[in-house]
Design a protein that fits this description.
This is U10-Eretoxin-Ek1ai_1. With 118 residues, this protein is mostly helical. The protein is 42% helix and 0% strand. The radius of gyration is 17 Å and the shape is globular.
Length: 118
C-alpha cells in the first residue's frame, strides 16, 4: 500500500513539475529525450501503461529467469557462471513512464544513448 501511495505521489509531482515549468524534466539530458516527445500521431495506441497484475507477472517471469541465471542453471545462452550477488528486480514507475513514452513513438529500435539517462 505504501509503495502505491509513493508511486502516485511521484507521478503527480512529475506531472506538476512538467506542467508548471512547461519543460520536460528530461530535457537536461537531451532535447530529443523520449519522455519529451508527444505520441507519434501515426501510431495506433490501443492501451497505455501496465496494470498491477501484469506488473507482478512481468517481475515474476523476469526474476525467475534471473534466479536461474544466478544459480548457473541457464544453458541456452552457452552457460554462464553462477552470480555472486544478483538482486531481485523491482518495478520502477519512473522507468515505466519513460518506456511508455518511448513505446508511443512506434519506432521499434533503441532510443539515443542520452535518452537512457534518468
Amino acid at each position: 500500500m505504501a509503495a502505491r501511495v509513493i508511486a502516485i505521489i511521484s507521478a503527480i509531482a512529475l506531472a506538476f513539475g512538467f506542467i508548471e515549468c512547461g519543460r520536460c524534466p528530461y530535457e537536461k539530458f537531451t532535447p530529443n529525450h523520449s519522455f519529451c516527445k508527444p505520441p507519434n500521431p501515426s501510431c495506433n495506441i490501443l492501451q497505455r501503461g501496465v496494470g498491477a497484475g501484469d506488473r507482478m507477472k512481468i517481475l515474476k517471469l523476469h526474476n525467475d529467469y534471473r534466479a536461474k541465471v544466478a544459480a548457473g542453471q541457464e544453458t541456452e545462452a552457452g552457460g554462464l557462471p553462477p552470480a555472486a550477488n544478483m538482486l531481485e528486480m523491482v518495478w520502477d514507475d519512473e522507468l515505466a513512464a519513460v518506456a511508455q513514452k518511448h513505446a508511443e513513438q512506434c519506432h521499434f529500435e533503441h532510443d539515443c544513448s542520452e535518452c537512457r539517462q534518468s
